[in-house]
Design a protein that fits this description.
By secondary structure, the chain is of the alpha+beta class. Helix content is 29%, strand content 22%. It has 11 helices and 16 strands. It has helices spanning 14-23, 41-46, 107-123, 136-149, 153-163, 171-182, 192-207, 229-233, 274-277, 285-288, 303-306; strands spanning 3-6, 9-12, 30-35, 54-61, 78-85, 91-97, 126-129, 243-247, 253-256, 293-295, 311-315, 322-327, 331-332, 338-339, 342-346, 350-354. A 7-stranded mixed β-sheet has the order 1-2-7-3-6-5-4. Strands 10-15-12-11 form a 4-stranded antiparallel β-sheet, with no helix packed on it. It has a 3-stranded antiparallel β-sheet with strand order 9-8-16, with no helix packed on it. The protein binds zinc ion (2 copies). Residues 247, 249-250, 252, 316, 318-319, 321 line the site of one zinc ion. It comes from Salix udensis. The active site is at residue 130. It is an enzyme of class 3 (hydrolase).
Amino acid sequence: MPYLVRENLFIGNISDAAEVLQNGSSEITHILSVLSSVSISFFTEWRSGVVIPTKEIKKVCVGDGEDEWRSCLAANKVLYGLEYAGKDLKLVRMAVPVRDMESEDLLDYLDVCLDFIENSRKEGAVLVHCFAGVSRSAAIITAYLMRTEQLSLEGALESLRQSCESVCPNDGFLEQLKMFEEMGFKVDHANPIYKRFRLKVLGEFYNRGEKIDSSKFGADPGVPTQVSSKEEASPDEGKKAIPVYRCKKCRRVVASQENVVDHVPGEGETSFAWSKQKSGNPFNKSDESECSSLFVEPLKWMTAVEEGALEGKLCCAHCEARLGYFNWSGIQCSCGSWITPAFQLHKSRVDVSTA
Ligand SMILES: [Zn+2]
Ligand SMILES: [Zn+2]
């Protein structure tokens, strides 16, 4: 039986969902399926004899919007499927393809899931389910409670456990929910927290041997962008001068402040203690924490990165001056922090200016 979490909001497992889909429900009108596949055939494969009629409303793929490369999701991947389902096609089912793995990107599905829950509760009642009703569905409902009730991760999880004791999102999901909290209950692609998460995900792709498509690289800030019709309509409106970094030798723009992935000097999961010894005086902290490098997102001019090497030089696309280094396994900043993966520009090779 599904557990009631809030008015018009239930959590359950695949059996609960199959029961509602096959026999209908006096309360539930909407279902959010969080399974490894969006297809209704997942139910048939799970238990033979389960046949659920569906009628597709729409299937939405990761689009090619301007901001799309900033998400972790591959272009053309299914973001969600929406259909009428069950007896007399009376239920509305949304399905998102999320596996219960620590490395799975949950963040990029939160917006569509939370909006679906919100809208469904206005029209009726919604059941959020995954396979066991323990990790994925719980993570999404936790995020929903965080956003709607402005609860901390711990607060939301504790509140959910009062309805359903067995909930236990996996550690990777908990980490991402913590980021969701730190970003103010939204998934903000421009936030340094999200940028670091994205680099980590790209690093995991690389380590698994997947080719990192240059569609995941940031636009080259040194090349004028194509002016979209939207921008033409409102020239210069609201445009702020964003600081840019230029090659010291030829002045080509190589990065903008938007591409910078900040780190806290001297901090990081794998900051090695021995690096501090080199400077001699451990109390001389102010000098020591001055970072001599800038770390950025991979950008389209970094052709050496696109070729698939583990590490290599980053050279200016115009004059070929050496600007820095990249390494998918990480580089240690002069402050002691390890940045993994790292796309590093030496501050001594670039100038900052507000163009
Ligand atoms: Zn540093
Ligand atoms: Zn140059």
